[in-house]
Specification:
The structure is a homodimer. Chain A has about 350 residues and is an alpha/beta fold. Chain A has two domains: about 130 residues, translation initiation factor eif-2b, domain 1 (Four Helix Bundle (Hemerythrin (Met), subunit A)); about 200 residues, Translation initiation factor eif-2b, domain 2 (Rossmann fold). Helix content of chain A is about 40%, strand content about 15%. The first copy, chain A, has eleven helices and 16 strands. In chain A, the strands form four sheets. Chain A has a seven-stranded mixed β-sheet. In chain A, strands 1-2-3 form a three-stranded antiparallel β-sheet. In chain A, strands 8-9-14 form a three-stranded antiparallel β-sheet, with helices on one face. In chain A, β15 and β16 form a beta hairpin. The longest helix of chain A has 30 residues. At the A-B interface, α7, β6, α8, α9 and β12 of A face α7, β6, α8, α9 and β12 of B.
């Protein structure tokens, strides 16, 4: 296993000794830093579904390692049976988080690599190598995003971020927080305001934790305080990740859309940092079904009851920020200023 | 004690048998509906400080009953000593929530009435009567707010509200939710979207509970979902209360400012419902110190740890919504459309 840039394990990796996918259980942070081993596909699917691992790029690696795990576990004796097993695994993996495009991307990439195999052992080797390549490339990708994005942060800036588009959302370094890390690596002093990101509090639980590990100054606020913080002049820019970028919108954690409107109102730049693997070239706002999550997430906060047990709840996982609210999309292929055509990104 | 319109006790009242202030402990809702008795001034101050009782109009009554309680408890034998005791009590009461103008208003009103007393017994009678008058008038005031405001809600409308400007924020009926109740009393079907209102979740804990008691349809959302709910066409108007209204801004629970910007962006009317006792005729945005609350409110949600224990936190209790973001201020003296001069309200 690799050690990350910050001397902690990477967010997700393959353990050769136990032939399993190992990952940091993010539902336990910040109380506990625990590595879990997924030795079966169902345990990995459970980990994805319950957000033990989350974040678009990390889910890409999870998809890839998931197929490698399925190949490792399959008892198939011939290529045809093996392919059938992997297709079942692919379906199971993809259905855990239907909105997360990177998950499917990682699954499909590793599946595709299988065509190079001559036998089932080859499938096992190739899927694992391909999944590892995804992980390696993700780190390289995030470093590129950081390199391209750092110029937008000035020495002394305070960046407001939502959810966790950090190291723990990726294999390492981070997308939005990777830009912060790269700016700091260039010698700039950067502070972060982390929105707690209800209802699952990825901001308060994960973003603050990973920044504090790196001794990057971070202040926690409730999501509803973002507008007031901007009004008070506390925010120089907004920097978020993305779960899916279509021609017209950026799908990201619920609350991102609100921040984009607040940024526009206060004339603060609004940046999206994401790898091009997040681009959905055929999708539009209307073509993507937004996952509605369990009402219990708003009725309870862990052990704490917050609302009447039978109250009706509206709990979309994501929202869609119109491209016209976005100042720039920072990717591993460079920076794009809306409006732009997605196709041009890959030229 | 009075029974409220909904067959539950009023939010705050005087118990003649025990000579104490009785109130619904709102920190226990929705798990438990519990009445607590404050037999000492310090227990009442504690109840105000820890938000067992909250909401601008209810705090007006709490201030009034607090002085009556101090008069009841004072061992003073002469008017001079009694006045001194009441001034000490007034200071203690006001310091519990410095931003809440109604609290001081209730305290001062009852203190002023003392000048009519000839002896200490008279002080006790007069302060209690004056405090009771505040409570009675609050109910009448809210009914008037409801009457003036109901016309803004159309049959079938969905109203988004923040925090709790309901029956439990007042002695009875409510300000913002009083408008909803009055519209429903006129035969209209009105639905409410309640923002949970982090960090203390008055929306999820109290607003949903009191509306469900009255069988008014309510859907709970996270604060960060308000913008997206508006974008999806789910919101016809925003209706909030106020803690303090100056010439230029409306001070209300943190998050209100953000909702006002979202409403403007989506061309949705933004209404503030509050009694004229909330008006601060001499104040301006810059003249009011916004209370910064305990960082622990964001690090924990009851028993649930949400963030690293030593994370830095920004936790303002209120924000200030510019009057130009407000469509109308609905008061017991009628409806005012910004820009207007506060002085004209009382003409």
């Amino acid at each position: 296993m690799f050690t990350s840039e910050s001397d902690l394990m990477r967010t997700i990796d393959w353990n050769e000794e136990s032939n399993s996918v190992v990952l940091v259980d993010q539902t336990l942070l910040p109380q506990e830093y625990k590595i879990i081993e997924c030795k079966t596909l169902s345990s990995l699917c459970e980990a994805i579904k319950t957000l033990r691992i989350r974040g678009a790029p990390a889910l890409g690696a999870a998809g890839g390692f998931g197929i490698a795990l399925a190949a490792s576990l399959s008892g198939a004796k011939d290529l045809e049976s093996m392919t059938r097993d992997l297709k079942v695994a692919a379906k199971a993996l993809k259905s855990t988080r239907p909105t997360a495009v990177n998950l499917g991307w990682g699954v499909d990439r590793v599946l595709k690599a299988v065509s190079d195999a001559f036998d089932v052992r080859g499938v096992r080797d190739i899927t694992l190598q391909e999944a590892r390549d995804i992980a390696e490339e993700d780190v390289a990708t995030n470093k590129l995003i950081g390199k391209y994005g750092a110029k937008f942060l000035k020495d002394g800036d305070t960046v407001l971020t939502h959810c966790n588009a950090g190291r723990l959302a990726c294999v390492d370094w981070g997308t939005a927080l990777g830009v912060v890390r790269s700016a700091i690596a260039e010698g700039k002093e950067i502070k972060v305001i982390a929105c707690e990101t209800r209802p699952l509090n990825q901001g308060s639980r994960i973003t603050t934790w990973e920044l504090m590990q790196d001794k990057i100054p971070v202040t926690l606020i409730a999501d509803s305080m973002a507008g007031w913080a901007m009004h008070q002049g506390l925010v120089d820019s907004v920097l978020v990740g993305a779960d899916r970028i279509t021609q017209d919108v950026v799908f990201n954690k619920i609350g991102t859309y609100t921040h984009s409107i607040l940024a526009k109102e206060h004339e603060i730049p609004f940046y999206v940092a994401a790898p091009v693997s997040t681009f959905d070239f055929k999708g539009w706002e209307g073509s993507v079904r937004i996952e509605m999550r369990d009402p219990e997430e708003l009725r309870f906060s862990g052990c704490q009851q917050l609302a009447p047990k039978d109250v009706e709840v509206y709990n979309p996982a994501f929202d869609a920020t119109p491209m016209e609210n976005v100042t720039a999309v920072i990717t591993d292929k460079g920076v794009f200023y809306p409006p732009f055509l997605l196709d041009e990104v890959l030229v």
